[in-house]
Amino acid sequence: MNAKRTDFIATVVIDLIVASVVGILFFLLAYILTAGLPHVSWSFLTGATDAFSGAGGIGVQLFNSFYLLVLTMLISVPISLGAGIYLAEYAKDNWRTSLIRSAIEVLSSLPSVVVGLFGFLLFVVKFKIGFSVISGSIALTFFNLPLLTRNIEESLSAVSRSQREAGLSLGLSKWKTELGIILPVALPGIVTGIVLSAGRVFGEAAALIYTAGQSAPVTNFADWNPMDPASPLNPFRPAETLAVHIWKVNTEGLASNAAALSAAASAVLIIAVLLFNLGARLLGNYLYRRVTASK
Amino acid sequence: MLKQYSFEETAVQTFDDKTSLAMRTEDMQVFYGSNHAMFDANLAFPKNQITALIGASGSGKSTYLRSLNRMNDGIATVTGKIWYHGVNINEPGVNIYEIRRHIGMVFQRPNPFAKSIRENIVYALRANGVKKKAELEERIEQSLKGAALWDEVKDSLDKSALSLSGGQQQRLCIARSIAMAPDVLLLDEPCSALDPISTVKVEETLLELQKKYSIIIVTHNMQQASRISSQCAFFHLGHIMEYAPTGTMFSNPQIPVTQDYIAGSFG
């Protein structure tokens, strides 16, 4: 077979594979949106849930999902940034480093239900924090750390060595070079990693059932003092997220319109994830342009 | 098959007046792991002159150059003494960051930071405590003028440095180094990635800069060495074979290996 023909066949096969991936994605999106959107209304988006049947709106759950995400990121991004910088720049190539790497890999392959039960026993029961946003975010941090650390390490390592040499040759310390010169260049890759892990956090249910809880007490959205028990910002209140709500409506819900409720909630969840991705990318691009002066 | 030359037969000039020197090395050895890459390097560099280090690929000239401002720390083991202003800077206790501010370096491939032209120059200055806006502005202008780049970029200082051409980027890297007000400037084949016109501009810049700085340049281009340098050292397989004023070296090389290299009948 000649080279031209081989190349043609390979191109067609690759195109077909890509088309099927994109096709499946669009089919799923279209299905979820068409099934769910007709049931979405303003009162559904903002209303309270009936605690017994699970019927009613998803306002609190929607807020909980975002709040949990933000809190999780606040905890996990700094930790994984430190770990990623350490692995990319400071770790020597020896058995200790490979031990750390395999530990991170093991952590990333833990089933989420195990992480959830672990969080339940340690934070909820042992530390007596109870079902709460904070227990949930710490459990989710366990998921995030391996992904984010790996991603940050790879983004940093991808920056050319000559940039590091330039920094060092000007008498900058290794740390200053890393933070001021390498990190800004690696920013787009890191933002992608954050977006990916945010999607996981949004969609996670199993680990949150045991840590953030399955109830969404009515909160007073006029009260923004995080210390008040009724405030939406109180990290110690139980917080059922949208994904947990979908699971609950389908398994334990007594509402007569459970199917419509979960379809609508799924559509909202997907739109929220898309909006978050878009927002994170825009922010990432903006920051990148600011620090690198490109266009 | 490479011709065999005796490493015993060398012709390395020395300088009696140590105060006229910018820096010198004494019995410097470099090892990459167990691989001995640089043998007994004894070179002295006169102040305010351009010294060229020439030799074939793998002769150890870049390795030698990178050792001078301790850029080989963590990569190779460097033993022996590196004298700079009466201090042996190859001691463990020496502040290498301070040293690198005095001994600047420009690399083979232009490596400006992914920042604006202005930031490229002031980033390291600010990190080293120069905070006054007026002084920063002055350093930007002076260093860019010194690198003969000012006229080309003075109206676009906030543009990304990556939007410059290769030759402009390399001159920006030179400007970035001299903005630190160093004493010695090390250049590692600074023109090898540039076109002939950019090369000429960089060379003119260096000839101008030697009035203020002592310059040591690695080059694989013998024409370049003869055009710009006052002193020239020839490296061969990790040994410094000959070191002489450039004119003498090219017109009247002392030992067979240099004669063959300059005549182009090497190996």
UniProtKB/TrEMBL annotation, chain A:
<comment type="similarity">
    <text>Belongs to the binding-protein-dependent transport system permease family. CysTW subfamily.</text>
</comment>
<feature type="transmembrane region" description="Helical">
    <location>
        <begin position="129"/>
        <end position="148"/>
    </location>
</feature>
<feature type="transmembrane region" description="Helical">
    <location>
        <begin position="66"/>
        <end position="87"/>
    </location>
</feature>
<keyword id="KW-1133">Transmembrane helix</keyword>
<keyword id="KW-0812">Transmembrane</keyword>
<feature type="transmembrane region" description="Helical">
    <location>
        <begin position="258"/>
        <end position="280"/>
    </location>
</feature>
<keyword id="KW-0472">Membrane</keyword>
<feature type="transmembrane region" description="Helical">
    <location>
        <begin position="99"/>
        <end position="123"/>
    </location>
</feature>
<feature type="transmembrane region" description="Helical">
    <location>
        <begin position="179"/>
        <end position="198"/>
    </location>
</feature>
<dbReference type="InterPro" id="IPR000515">
    <property type="entry name" value="MetI-like"/>
</dbReference>
<dbReference type="InterPro" id="IPR005672">
    <property type="entry name" value="Phosphate_PstA"/>
</dbReference>
<keyword id="KW-0813">Transport</keyword>
<dbReference type="InterPro" id="IPR035906">
    <property type="entry name" value="MetI-like_sf"/>
</dbReference>
<keyword id="KW-1003">Cell membrane</keyword>
<feature type="domain" description="ABC transmembrane type-1">
    <location>
        <begin position="62"/>
        <end position="280"/>
    </location>
</feature>
<dbReference type="Pfam" id="PF00528">
    <property type="entry name" value="BPD_transp_1"/>
</dbReference>
<feature type="transmembrane region" description="Helical">
    <location>
        <begin position="12"/>
        <end position="33"/>
    </location>
</feature>
<protein>
    <recommendedName>
        <fullName>Phosphate transport system permease protein PstA</fullName>
    </recommendedName>
</protein>
Automatic annotation (TrEMBL), chain B:
<keyword id="KW-0067">ATP-binding</keyword>
<dbReference type="InterPro" id="IPR027417">
    <property type="entry name" value="P-loop_NTPase"/>
</dbReference>
<dbReference type="InterPro" id="IPR017871">
    <property type="entry name" value="ABC_transporter-like_CS"/>
</dbReference>
<dbReference type="InterPro" id="IPR005670">
    <property type="entry name" value="PstB-like"/>
</dbReference>
<dbReference type="InterPro" id="IPR003439">
    <property type="entry name" value="ABC_transporter-like_ATP-bd"/>
</dbReference>
<dbReference type="InterPro" id="IPR003593">
    <property type="entry name" value="AAA+_ATPase"/>
</dbReference>
<dbReference type="Pfam" id="PF00005">
    <property type="entry name" value="ABC_tran"/>
</dbReference>
<keyword id="KW-1278">Translocase</keyword>
<keyword id="KW-0592">Phosphate transport</keyword>
<keyword id="KW-0472">Membrane</keyword>
<dbReference type="GO" id="GO:0005524">
    <property type="term" value="F:ATP binding"/>
</dbReference>
<feature type="domain" description="ABC transporter">
    <location>
        <begin position="23"/>
        <end position="262"/>
    </location>
</feature>
<keyword id="KW-1003">Cell membrane</keyword>
<keyword id="KW-0813">Transport</keyword>
<protein>
    <submittedName>
        <fullName>Phosphate ABC transporter ATP-binding protein PstB</fullName>
    </submittedName>
</protein>
<keyword id="KW-0547">Nucleotide-binding</keyword>
